[in-house]
Write a structure and sequence with these properties.
The protein has 333 residues and is α/β, with parallel strands linked by helices. The protein is built from 15 helices and nine strands. The protein is elongated and about 75 Å long.
């Protein structure tokens, strides 16, 4: 009688087998990819796949520029270097914390930010819209500023609500030289982190940090542009979040039953803080259906980015005024 064939095995080296087999940078990346896949970690905090995360992890540990990985992949690795990389791989797999938290930094549209559990890992899609000038079509003041009319016209004013570690405020200040930028957050701990990031970019004199609940600390100030990456994750999605996302501040993600709890307040209050041709820009992630249902009378536009065409919304002052109070408007389908 013929013996049944054994089931195929999937294997990842461990212990001495690993340390004795790695010789080059690419060996460490290959092992990292295998371990990340084997452990079932989730991505989304600067990378969206195991290979990119592995390159980042290995490059960070070895002080190598990520963008030059292909040129350095064949470089030899000393045993102490390999051990440090392997230890970080195992920490990433066992802790299920975002790599950005473990290494203390994150990159967003080419800019480095300090990063820890005091705030979300910087990843707002609004940064891409700012960098690519996607908002200029909705806001004449941005076009005028880009054209160099800022010296003759009034100063561009930008508010970053729910700023967290301050990444959007910093990116806006760097892109729009001479603009006045205010960054607000309800979390004192998040603002402590933001202050460190502002200091890194020498923007601590130009960007004003405000500790307040949304617009509460803004007074009567009005802005050309209000950007916000608010808590917008709906209740069901919150319950299903992977461990990496649960490692982030809960209140910075939880948007209530439909994800629109804080968004509704922003939509209701923003008109009082926009200049006549001002624009409100909100990141809503995968909550487009809930947004449309919650604000059926609001005329708005989606701002397309690489991850999708309906993850960011933009609404003008006139549209916000015309829509009225979202909490009293009839719900859409």
């Amino acid at each position: 009688m013929q013996k049944a064939a054994s089931a195929p095995r999937r294997v990842v080296a461990t212990g001495a087998d690993t340390i004795n087999s790695v010789r080059r940078v690419r060996d460490l990346v290959r092992h990292a990819v295998s371990r990340l896949d084997q452990s079932g970690v989730r991505f989304g905090h600067g990378t969206d796949n195991a290979f990119d995360e592995a390159v980042w992890l290995v490059s960070w540990t070895l002080h190598l520029p990520v963008e030059h990985y292909a040129d350095l992949a064949e470089a030899a690795v000393a045993w102490p270097e390999a051990r440090a990389v392997l230890e970080l791989i195992e920490l990433r797999c066992s802790s299920r914390k975002p790599l950005a938290y473990l290494v203390g930094e994150a990159w967003l549209v080419g800019h480095r930010f300090r990063c820890d559990e005091r705030a979300l890992v910087p990843r707002s899609l609004i940064a891409e819209a700012l960098r690519d000038a996607s908002l200029a079509a909705f806001l004449p003041a941005l076009d005028r500023h880009a054209a160099g009319a800022g010296a003759q016209a009034r100063q561009l004013r930008i508010l970053d609500l729910c700023t967290g570690g301050g990444s959007l405020a910093i990116i806006a200040a760097l892109l729009f030289e001479g603009a006045a930028v205010v960054a607000s957050d309800i979390s004192p701990a998040a603002l402590e982190l933001a202050a460190l990031n502002l200091a890194d970019y020498r923007l601590d004199k130009r960007i004003k940090l405000v500790n307040a609940d949304l617009f509460a600390g803004i007074g009567r100030q009005r802005f050309d542009l209000i950007v916000c990456n608010p808590p917008y994750v709906n209740r069901q999605s919150m319950d299903e979040l992977p461990a990496e996302y649960r490692a982030e501040p809960h209140d910075a993600l939880d948007g209530g039953d439909d994800g629109m709890e804080l968004v509704a307040r922003i939509v209701r209050e923003a008109a009082e803080h926009l200049r006549p041709d001002g624009l409100l820009v909100l990141e809503i992630g995968h909550e487009a259906r809930h947004f449309e249902r919650r604000f059926p009378q609001l005329e708005f536009a989606y701002v397309p980015v690489a991850q999708g065409d309906d993850h960011i919304v933009a609404a003008t002052l006139s549209a916000l005024k015309a829509a009225g109070d979202p909490d009293t408007a009839p719900a859409g389908r």
